[in-house]
Design brief:
The complex is a heterodimer of chains A (499) and B (447). By secondary structure, chain A is an alpha/beta fold. Chain A has twelve helices and twelve strands. Chain A has two domains: 254 residues, 3-Layer(aba) Sandwich (Aspartate Aminotransferase, domain 2), CATH 3.40.640; 122 residues, Alpha-Beta Complex (Aspartate Aminotransferase, domain 1). In chain A, strand 4, helix 7 and strand 5 form a beta-alpha-beta unit. Chain A is globular and about 65 Å long. Chain B is an alpha/beta fold. Helix content of chain B is 36%, strand content 13%. Chain B contains 13 helices and 13 strands. In chain B, the strands form three sheets. A seven-stranded mixed beta sheet of chain B has the order 1-7-6-5-4-2-3, sandwiched between helices. The chains are: A alpha/beta (499), B alpha/beta (447). Chains A and B meet through helix 1, helix 2, helix 3, helix 4 and helix 5 of A and helix 1, helix 2, helix 3, helix 4 and helix 5 of B.
Chain lengths: 499, 447
């Protein structure tokens, strides 16, 4: 497979680009605006007299700046992006168009409800899809991202315990969990109690059971897990936590593997966030925005955050006040009503796939990951046996004695034209590599990626460690000194640097 | 299905390679009775044309501010976004990249974040800024928790001029912590003095400038009072364009600035996604939540950028992290920084002056209408008016004529005695004809 070149190696088209502040001047401008007379201002004592210090550039300079910078980025549109638990799948451009429609993209959040019936209908529609796909009775739409959804879920759990007059102090979190899980529990005032994983990569049921008492508020379990596995004992986990009077928070980061195939509501889940920017393909945009609706059980629904959409005889309405049916709400989690721009994209994605297509998404993503594992057998083996879900977890066993680390391997992938997989996560596996190809890769693309993985594994095992240590050499930058950055933080440009 | 490249032949071959007969064998770990044997009860797949039609129909059931006189603000503002912004943020390399965890192939995102942080620090008058938060409200709540960590004090004092959504998010986010939040009564006239309420337990005072009601405050005396008692001043800004015409929060002594950046480059989009800004003093940087981009060099000595100081963050510190935030508002931050690059010093300040002078023109015309009392002496681009009738009904009445005349305060402060108050925002988007229709509409409604 290595006969197929995955990169050109050319750098003639890649331009270096200075900072805005190193090329602008105060007298250039990329917009034409009339100047206004401020002699009669109403700013009291605080009218600005001094310059802000912003650089000015004309429009063509601005365009060139960002186009040049953009070419220093890897992106899903340019190649397979196998970041495990991140679900870097194709982002349809139709969804971008729809998010910008007049009457959607330009809506003000505080227009009279009578003027936004279509928008409220859209939110209600998306809520219906999410509830149906998860088999859950309620959904909180406002959380702005996955971690924000976790906050929403754990807060509803805490509020539910409080309503019962129960003061519980601990949340159980498996060691394999994403860092946001323990951070979220701590933000809600809980102590985090780590649960080990067993030698099959699943939650250790005996250790879990031993921790259960009337101080446990709930468990945060990622399913499918960060090990790329379905938690085969998930029903027992649900039964046991419920028997102990706790709630089951499911981290839905990996919902892509089971969407349309399995409903979390059938597994005993009390609440679960859904990353619309993963499973439902809203673009990651270099780090956001996301959207993290949380589906809720009947027991937790009364504590859902405000606002939310209701449907009555007079059409759709927004419940914005903590009164009436919303009297027990945990309150407001963000300004306005949620990530509407992401709702539009996610709903368009769902309607495009339909219930049949979404089921195919899950099947193809799981098929692709297992196909990759099968094709890599002989050079590298997954950390745990048995079929994986939509991502496969490898440890660094295949690099033992090669003097090549997981990091070196990842950096070498860059020189082969691929973004590396998620590395050193989850923490329970030594030198972890978590690989998620997603369902939007063709067979040819998968084979090319597999070819590169095999090639690099064999190269490492044949004693060519030095090439790995030097990698990447073909990227816009070689390895960057992260220790220097942390020890001598330089977090902005300052004018003194001009001298 | 147009987004799924695998063919049935591919699937059959791949199953054979794996050594299973059907894809269901790969779901063997799922309890058998939890495996759905067919699609759930939702519509089947649809082509691009059908989906687009469905969305156009939903869009048509809304009154689009783009084709109506619109005076809505209260934390979200309609500004002109240059075509360049939307073109650039839709470049594949920005739109479809992940968080820049592999810096060698993410320098585009990283350098723009470094420039974003610099711009945010400049306009807020602070020393450092982070790489964005979800929105202004969550940013303000994070600022409160940051102030608590910095001072090890438990009480936050919240101004009656702070946007009620911001106050509510602070209350929610601190609800299960040992922090207490003391909120001052709604300050419609812009006369509150919080200084006497600051004591030795006060971690921070949170004020908005301009306030919810549009008043512009000189925060220097309050900053001095905070610092005198060892408390921090947190300044929220919901309309960042104001910073082009006003002294910055940093100029006035702020310790942490939390702002909503939507006004620059970001669509209103019914309230989200927007972009939270957060800036502070250099000495407080290790308590900042969220991502930070920093400058460094690669092994060849070339300048480059990385995400840095991650020992604050959840993926390293887990339950000891400064916040649980992971995904932020990257693409909206990019839109913000591109818009501000196009504006530059001259454009940013002209835009602010244009907003202010148009708002003055509208305020003066409103003041001449019978039944309208303009409350503000000072303002930037938004004023509070007291109507002779309940504002919600007037708003609804004008909406029926296609005029979005403002935000009734009662929508934000239900239960408070403010039924007749209306917030009217004026940006560069408002035309002379829009103003005429607003004045005529209100005159008729209040007759």
């Amino acid at each position: 497979m290595t006969g197929i070149p995955t990169h050109s190696g050319h750098r003639g088209l890649n331009m270096e680009e200075p900072l805005l502040f190193e090329q602008g001047s105060a007298d250039r401008c990329g917009v034409d605006l009339p100047d206004a007379d401020m002699s009669d201002h109403r700013l009291g004592a605080v009218a600005r007299a001094d310059a802000v210090g912003l650089p000015g550039l004309a429009e063509p300079e601005v365009i060139r700046h960002y186009v040049r910078l953009s070419r220093m980025n890897y992106a899903i549109d340019s190649g397979l992006y196998p970041l495990g638990s991140c679900t870097m799948k194709h982002n349809p451009r139709l969804n971008e168009r729809l998010a910008r429609l007049e009457g959607l993209g330009d809506l003000h959040p505080l227009q009279p409800e009578s003027t936004v019936q279509g928008a409220l209908e859209l939110i209600d529609n998306l809520a219906h899809w999410l509830k149906t796909l998860t088999g859950m009775p309620a959904v909180a739409m406002s959380p702005a991202a996955g971690a924000h959804g976790e906050l929403c879920g754990i807060m509803t759990i805490r509020a539910a315990h409080q309503a019962k007059g129960a003061a519980r102090g601990r949340v159980l979190v498996p060691e394999s969990a994403h860092g946001t899980n323990p951070a979220t529990a701590a933000m809600c005032g809980y102590k985090v109690d780590a649960v080990p994983n067993n030698n099959r990569g699943r939650i250790d049921l005996a250790a879990f059971e031993a921790k259960l008492d009337d101080d446990v508020a709930g468990i945060m379990l990622t399913n499918p897990s960060t090990c790329g596995l379905f938690e085969s004992d998930v029903r027992r986990v649900a039964d046991m936590i419920h028997a102990a009077g706790g709630y089951f928070y499911c981290d839905g980061a990996n919902f892509n593997a089971i969407v349309g195939k399995v409903r979390p509501g059938d597994l005993g889940v009390d609440c679960m966030h859904i990353n619309l920017h993963k499973t439902f393909s809203t673009p990651h945009g270099g780090g956001g925005p996301g959207s993290g609706p949380v589906v809720l059980s009947e027991a937790l629904a009364p504590f859902a955050p405000i606002p939310y959409v209701t449907h009555g005889a007079d059409g759709f309405a927004l419940v914005e006040a903590a009164a009436g049916d919303a009297a027990e709400t945990i309150g407001r989690l963000k300004g306005f009503h949620g990530q509407m721009g992401m709702f539009i994209r996610a709903l368009a994605y769902m309607m495009s796939h339909g219930s049949d297509g979404l089921r195919q998404v899950a099947e193809d993503s799981v098929l692709s990951a297992n196909y990759m594992v099968a094709c890599l057998s002989g050079v590298m083996a997954p950390a745990y046996e048995g079929p994986c879900m939509h991502e496969a977890l490898f440890d660094d066993d295949f690099l033992k004695g090669t003097d090549v680390s997981t990091l070196d391997f990842a950096k070498a992938m860059i020189d082969e034209g691929f973004h590396p997989m998620t590395i050193y996560f989850p923490l329970i596996v030594h030198g972890a590599m978590l690989v998620e190809p997603t369902e939007t890769e063709s067979r040819q693309s998968l084979d090319q990626f597999i070819g590169v993985m095999r090639h690099l594994a064999e190269k490492a095992q044949s004693g060519e460690a030095e090439a790995f240590h030097a990698a990447p050499v073909l990227a816009p930058r070689r390895r960057l000194d992260e220790t220097h950055a942390a020890r001598h933080p330089r977090l902005r440009w300052t004018p003194e640097e001009e001298a | 299905m147009r987004y799924l490249p695998l063919t049935d032949n591919d699937r059959t071959d791949m199953l054979a390679t794996i050594g299973v007969d059907s894809v269901d064998e790969l779901f063997v770990d799922v309890p058998a009775d939890a495996r759905l044997d067919g699609p759930v009860d939702l519509p089947g797949h649809a082509g691009e044309l059908a989906v687009e039609r469905a969305f156009r129909e939903m869009a048509a059931r809304n009154l689009a501010p783009s084709s109506a006189p619109s005076f809505l603000g209260a934390g979200a503002y309609r500004h002109h976004v240059p075509a360049t912004v939307d073109h650039l943020i839709q470049r594949s390399e920005f739109l479809t990249a992940y968080t820049p965890y592999q810096p060698e192939i993410s320098q585009g995102t990283l350098q723009t974040l470094f420039e974003f942080q610099t711009q945010v620090a400049l306009i807020t008058g602070m020393e450092v800024a982070n790489a964005s938060m979800y929105d202004g409200a969550t940013s303000t709540a994070e600022a409160v928790m940051m102030a608590h960590r910095l001072t090890r004090r438990g009480k936050s004092l919240v101004s009656g001029g702070l946007h009620p959504h911001y106050r509510a998010v602070i209350e929610t986010m601190t609800r299960f912590t040992d922090l207490t939040v003391a909120a001052a009564p709604a300050d419609r006239s812009g006369v509150e003095d919080l200084a006497p309420l600051i004591d030795a337990d006060t971690a921070c005072v949170v004020v908005q400038n301009p306030t919810l009601f549009g008043h512009v405050a000189d925060l220097r005396p309050l900053a001095a009072a905070c610092h005198d008692k060892g408390a921090l001043l947190v300044v929220a800004v919901t309309e960042v364009v104001s910073l082009g015409a006003m002294l910055s929060p940093g100029d006035m002594g702020a310790d942490i600035v939390a702002a909503e950046g939507q006004s620059l480059g970001v669509a209103l989009s019914f309230g989200g996604p927007h972009v939270g800004l957060m800036a502070t003093r250099k000495k407080f940087v290790r308590q900042l939540p969220g991502r930070l981009c920093g400058e460094t060099v690669d092994v060849d000595g070339r300048r480059g950028y990385v995400l840095t100081m991650s020992a604050r963050e959840q993926h390293i510190r887990r339950e000891k992290a400064t916040s649980n935030i992971c995904t932020n508002s990257g693409l909206c931050a990019l839109a913000f920084t591109i818009h501000l690059s196009l504006l530059g010093e001259a454009g940013f300040r002209r835009l602010a002056r244009l907003n202010h002078t148009r708002a003055i023109a509208v305020a003066d015309r409103l003041a001449a209408v019978a039944g309208i009392d303009v409350i503000n002496d000072t303002f930037f681009n938004e004023v509070t008016v007291a109507l002779s009738k309940p504002a919600a009904a007037v708003t609804e009445h004008l909406a029926e004529q296609g005029i979005l005349c403002g935000v009734p305060v009662s929508r934000l402060l239900p239960g408070e005695d403010c039924q007749n108050l209306l917030l009217v925002a004026v940006t560069e988007m408002v035309t002379d004809q829009d103003i005429d229709r607003l004045i005529d509409g209100l005159t008729e409604a209040l007759r």
